[in-house]
Amino acid sequence: MTDRRTLANAIRFLSIDAVQAANSGHPGAPMGMADIAEVLWRGVLRHNPENPQWANRDRFVLSNGHGSMLIYSLLHLTGYDVTIDDLKSFRQLHSRTPGHPEYGYTAGVETTTGPLGQGLANAVGMALAERTLAAQFNRDQFPIVDHYTYCFAGDGCLMEGVSHEACSLAGTLGLGKLIVFYDDNGISIDGDVRGWFSDDTPARFESYGWQVIRGVDGHDATEVETALKTARQETSRPTLICCRTVIGFGSPNLAGSEKTHGAPLGDAEIQATRDAMGWSYGPFEIPADIQSAWDAKAQGAKAQAEWDQLFADYQKQYPDLASEFERRIQGDLPQKALPAFDKAIAETQSESPKLATRKASQNAIEVVAKLFPETLGGSADLGHSNLTVWPECQANSQDNPGGNYMHYGVREFGMCALMNGIALHGGFLPFGGTFLIFMEYARNAVRMAALMKQRVIYVFTHDSIGLGEDGPTHQPIEQLASLRSTPGLETWRPCDTTETFVAWKEAVSYQGPTALALSRQGLANQPRAAQQVADIARGGYVLKKETSALELILIATGSEVELAVAASESLGGGVRVVSMPSTSRFDREDAAYKEAVLPASCTKRLAIEAGHPDGWYKYVGLNGDVIGMQTFGESGPGGDVMKHFGFTVDHVVSKAKAL
Ligand SMILES: Cc1ncc(C[n+]2csc(CCOP(=O)(O)OP(=O)(O)O)c2C)c(N)n1
User: Fold this and answer.
1) Which residues are catalytic?
2) Which atom of ligand 1 is nearest to the CA of 114?
């Protein structure tokens, strides 16, 4: 029987050799965490390498994503579809082993990590999803949802503020099946962390309400195993296992040094490490006995077969619940939901009063929650401002783990990173609200949702200077432009109830994230024919057609659509008003549709939006103009602020006439 250190060395040398071959990468963390990984992945982790999608697998997140060769080695050794050739092409273009673990590129990678701290927050989201799904679907004798979420995190993850947001909430929620290994090696890129990181990390996590297992020797498999056992026995608190480790463990001259963090060891040191560790095999060579000791395929197939049997019995007893579970895990929409949504949209067109779009969104959420039982809403402590609460929603908590509404607290970044974890886990349609301006606190998690193509919906209210009195700290200027420039993120800024309903319908059916930018102030519902209602989903459409030869096009979004319509009335019959709630959606339309909405022959075009103007020039062209915001706003009643910055009929009319 091969000893555990030797098994762990397989990870070390695959990592060392791949980094050396790529001439770039991070060997230190995999070398330091190899012994911990060996304990977790050989025997404890319940997974099936031949079916990485198995619904009840344990989730594993490498939050210190720079140590990507650790997870690639583990996936290869345990039998996932990650070959030795994949490891040899580490960090090469189009390989399945990119520099940082990327969701969708490599079988077994559960989330994209690299932006430190966020993987940990994703893991909290996964553990929350597991508990919520379990509460909704498990029945007596049928724990069909019953898995752990494990996470590796380094000093960098714990220095990042988002780790506080996520772990504080995990403690309050009592997520007992979340187990985090802290790689306490005392080193980050600049060297010994004591100069910049002197927190009492165990005490910090204890204060969050976590079980903390202190002082584990991360190179002693028995100690790690005992800690893991203790962690798994605690079911009402998450656990942090603090492991003292040595970065670059095994390298005779570089172990313990930041020099191993992010650079190849070099041929001479690699040979010295081989000699010191008694590893007599060549680069990328794993002897058969070591390979078979790692192979988890049979174990995984057995674990899944047991679960399959459990699920088959569950199916017999609860056929409807079982098919609903399968639908939710696959992320399919309920069959009747979209036609029902269309009916709700049509109703808004015939009977909506003047409403703020945040209020219209609340009405839409009521429809969404009824049609989509997978809805898991929430807000970062602005539920009654964002209007994300709906009459039947139930707060999710330790006492009510099946609840469909999350009080995320004042934690925008944590909320958005958790939502990514929830979406990745599967079974849910997460949405979360905050003010549009505080999207900036969450910015990188929004970007990660787009990068991973996760269906997450952001309810960003108070979408312009029109919010008024709270002033420039709260008034978004450049945020819409920033959201619109994010690849794969759909941004909608609807002008009334009907557009808001359409935006929600598009958001729930889009495989990627959607940002809804919603007004605080009331907006009248615009008249539309059925075809115009249908065209909203195309992102831009003719809301008010000219009644004589076309002379001028006014393009607007959100609260400025009303203004454009009013200005068009003063400007005469040759004016067309185009409402463009989603530029990215409109951009994907074919040329004929775009030409029908914005005919090239009409070069007099004016765009109006109370946000940064730059993005609008591609629609108005060189002869056009934009009324937007290039300064910060001001505090004052919303109407006065809008007037002060030129969002008036007179100003629109005079700008239009000047074209
Ligand atoms: C948000 C973020 N900031 C900065 C970085 C760049 N970075 C990558 S690793 C690292 C240091 C991490 O230190 P630690 O977690 O202790 O990792 P170790 O050196 O032990 O491998 C930094 C600053 C990053 N990846 N993400």
Assistant:
1) 412
2) 25
